[in-house]
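Example (one chain per record):
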Amino acid sequence: MTTRKIKLRLDEVRSFVDMACRCDFDIDISYNSYIVDAKSIVGVLGLDLNQVLTVSYNGFNSEFEEFMNRFAIAC
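Predicted structure:
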């Protein structure tokens, strides 16, 4: 399982969800105990975007990895 820490702004949520939808594997995004499907714009918007979010997935897509690098934060 791959886990990445990211920070999203409100105006970036749609592009994040669109990119997640292009992947043929499940992607979860979470903050504290809240875990939602990263392919759900309503779910992602329900998270506290002021916090560092954790993205977890069990697949590989080079486009998605490159896209995730734009939002990654140093731990």
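Caption: Residues 7 and 52 are 5 Å apart (CA to CA).
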